[in-house]
Amino acid sequence: MLFDLRGKGRRRAVRVIYIGLALLMGVGLVGFGIGGGFGGGGLFTAATNNEGSNSASFAAEVKKYRKQTQTQPTDAVAWEKLTRALLHEAGGETYVSGSGLTGKAKKLFTEASESWHSYLALNPPKTSTQLAKEMLPVYGEEGLNEPTQILQALNLIVAAEPDSYTYNRELALFAYKAKNTRLGDLAAAKAIALAPPEQRARLKTALAEVKKNPTGTSSSSSTASTTSTGTTTTPGITTTVGGTSTTKAKG
Question: Which parts of the chain fold into alpha helices (H)?
């Protein structure tokens, strides 16, 4: 038997198997949006919530790439690495307090935003889609709360992944909220076409309501509304950028 630990090499084999199973379970949970950071944001969870014990090494990387970007300001790779290092360091800190971002976290997020824009300004041959995804929670409600920047990042992601249902849906949602109807219509049509058949009608209705009332100020309980915290709630849509994933059921 495999679990008879008396045999030669059996204990080592069992240890390897258990470690392998633990890794598979961890990857599976994260892949389905369970157990992520930034309030459980699923696919929109930033890859910044890393090992706090390694924050010293991240700080060293930040220092290294700050210097590199100063001496080589036209090096897009250096700006990309600085942005990543700042996000990793922010993940090693207690970045959210009861009243919002801590002072250090806001400073790190703001610098990451500036570094990200410096990277984009250099028009890299192939913009990092993964880095764009990591910037989403930075601009979310628990971060710097800059929806227009979320829209810009989503545009980049959808350009690279045009057949992604999730990102087309989010692009439509934020485009409508930004009152960019043309972009919202294009993304909504693509999202509806890519959605599972049983969800298309509900998604179409929900996006139409956001298009009609992008600010969420309707007095009707069956349409979009604004909570006491200022968060827009929309029937039938799960908002996952920069905060807890919450599905709002219609009516």
Answer: 10-31, 55-71, 76-91, 103-121, 129-135, 147-160, 165-177, 181-194, 200-212
CA–CA gap between residue 229 and residue 141 (Å, rounded): 10
> Measured between alpha carbons, how far is 111 from 230 in angstroms, rounded to an integer?
26
Q: Is 251 helix (H, G, I), strand (E, B) or coil?
A: coil
CATH number given to 42-247: 1.25.40
For residue range 167-211, what is the model confidence (pLDDT) as tens digits? 999 999 999 988 999 999 999 999 999 999 999 999 999 999 999
Q: Count the helices and strands in the chain (H runs, E runs).
A: 9, 6
Spatial separation of the C-alpha atoms in residues 165 and 72, rounded to whole Å: 38
Domain ranges of the chain: 1-32, 42-247
d(CA 140, CA 40): 13
- The distance from CA 242 to its chain's CA centroid, rounded to whole angstroms, is 6
CB under 8 Å to 94, separation ≥6 — which residues?
A: 102, 105
Cα gap 109→129, rounded to integer Å: 18
Residue with tokens 């910044």: 48
